[in-house]
Write a structure and sequence with these properties.
The chain is about 25% helix and about 30% strand. The protein is α+β, with helices and mostly antiparallel strands. It has one domain (about 1-100, about 110-115). It has a six-stranded mixed β-sheet with strand order 2-1-6-4-5-3, covered by helices on one side.
């Protein structure tokens, strides 16, 4: 949960931020079933997240999972080489697709937000 001037936002992050007061670079996904915010402490992580969700078969939740366990250099290298198998936790159920293929750009939006980060009592 991120508090921005008294308004709380649920922001999905690959790991808990390093400080309580943090600036997050966010990516907003708008779909029929809701609006979702994904937050990152660096522009590099945000850019990698956006590259990952551009890979066929990798959605926002899978991209977040990959960024939570992989180093940015590993992720960037796997995307650049088209090697989906090199992406941790990616490609399950996608074995027949072979290399990572970029999808056309999406209608998602990226933003920067600054706020107070606090743990959601429900564990989210």
């Amino acid at each position: 949960m991120v508090d921005v001037k008294g308004v709380g936002y649920k922001v999905f992050v690959p790991r808990h931020p390093t400080a309580d007061d943090v600036m997050l670079h966010t990516h907003q996904v708008v779909r029929e079933d809701g609006q979702f915010l994904y937050g990152f402490e660096s522009r590099e992580e945000l850019a990698l997240f956006e590259m990952l969700i551009g890979v066929s078969g990798v959605g926002p939740k899978a991209a977040l999972a990959i960024l939570s366990v992989a180093r940015p250099a590993e992720v960037a290298g796997a995307i650049a080489s088209g090697d989906a198998a090199a992406l941790p936790r990616a490609g399950r159920g996608e074995e027949n697709r072979g290399a990572a293929h970029r999808r056309p750009s999406r209608e998602d939006r990226s933003h920067r937000a600054t706020g107070q980060c606090r743990r959601d009592p429900e564990g989210g």
